[in-house]
From TrEMBL:
A Pfam short name: adh_short
GO cellular component: cytosol
Organism whose genome encodes this protein: Lates calcarifer
Record keywords: Oxidoreductase
InterPro entries in the cross-refs: NAD(P)-bd_dom_sf, Sc_DH/Rdtase_CS, SDR_fam
GO MF term list: estradiol 17-beta-dehydrogenase [NAD(P)+] activity
Position of the signal peptide: none
GO BP, one annotated term: steroid catabolic process
Name of the protein: Hydroxysteroid (17-beta) dehydrogenase 14
UniProt KW Transport keyword: no
Family: Belongs to the short-chain dehydrogenases/reductases (SDR) family.
């Protein structure tokens, strides 16, 4: 099988588990040199060792908190020091807080989530862009389907994800003169540690997971690997796409959201 991202240098935020892990893995399998970050140490280091053993690409784990501007700056500079350039930035690290109504949500909670989910994407893009412009590279922002269709008791999260889609389009406009493409991916439900954690906060985790599966027309959740392949498509193959929002939703938004009662 030919390698679709051979020797390309990619930065992935939040790559130690979940969707980010899927992206790091698919990129390494396709020959890329990936630098990925997460806040903790152990999971990132274990993944780094596993993927470097498997190859054919390689990866480097950097411990970094993307809610901190200096950490983001360091992630980009470490990548350039190590590999000399950057072809692709994947902004993925983010968090979905437990569901709660607007009445119970403080301004501080909203501001903190904006900083973590949105400002971090802006800053990583800002620091990576001088390098991406030299390589006619690309940015991939992981948003969410709920940024377009909404979600109950999650106004701050939905706001951050909608803003990511808008920011993607704005940056695609600005960067087109440098031939830098900026796109986003909007997953529906994907089984990850974050999803498991949210299900665990409900009275019946198994029922929550079942409902999460049934939210897709395809009757299942997406996988980390499918997210990795979607990101690889945008990075390696989608050379005429910029400013797009690639829905990775198993058809969750179709038929006005009704998943059954389709007359045959
Ligand atoms: N899982 C889903 O169903 C789903 C659906 C739509 C969108 N998303 C989005 O996909 C992205 C990844 O979600 P996931 O489900 O894989 O989450 P996850 O919690 O399973 O993994 C998140 C990753 O980000 C890292 N991370 C979290 N906070 C960080 C910080 N401050 N600094 C550095 N790294 C940090 C974690 O260490 C981990 O590697 C998020 O932006 C999320 O909003 C997820």
């Amino acid at each position: 099988m030919s390698l679709r991202y051979h020797n390309k240098v990619a930065v992935v935020t939040g790559g130690s588990k979940g969707i980010g892990r899927g992206i790091v893995k698919v990129f390494v399998e396709n020959g890329a040199k990936v630098v990925f970050c997460a806040r903790g140490g152990a999971a990132g280091e274990a993944l780094e060792a596993e993927l470097n053993k498997a190859g054919p690409g390689s990866c480097t784990f950097v411990s970094c908190d993307i809610s901190k501007e200096e950490d983001i700056k360091r992630l980009i500079s470490v990548t350039v020091e190590r590999h000399g350039h950057i072809d692709c930035l994947v902004n993925n690290a983010g968090w979905h807080p437990p569901h709660k109504p607007t009445d119970d949500t403080t301004a501080e909670e909203f501001r903190d989530l904006l900083n973590l989910n949105l400002v971090s994407y802006f800053l990583a893009s800002k620091f990576a862009l001088p390098h991406l412009r030299q390589r006619q590279g690309n940015i991939i922002n992981v948003s969410s389907l709920v940024g377009t269709i909404g979600q109950r008791d999650a106004a701050p999260y939905v706001a951050t994800k909608g803003a990511i889609i808008s920011m993607t389009k704005a940056m695609a406009v600005d960067e087109s003169r440098f031939n830098v493409r900026v796109n986003c991916i909007s997953p529906g439900n994907v089984m990850t540690p974050l999803w498991e954690e949210l299900a665990g906060q409900t009275p019946d985790a198994a029922a929550a997971i079942k409902a999460g599966e049934n939210a897709q027309l395809m009757g299942r959740m997406g996988t980390e690997a499918e997210c990795g392949l979607a990101a690889l498509y945008l990075a390696a193959d989608a050379t005429f796409c910029t400013g797009i929002d690639l829905l990775l939703s198993g058809g969750a938004e179709l038929n006005y959201g009704f998943k059954s009662q389709i007359p045959s």
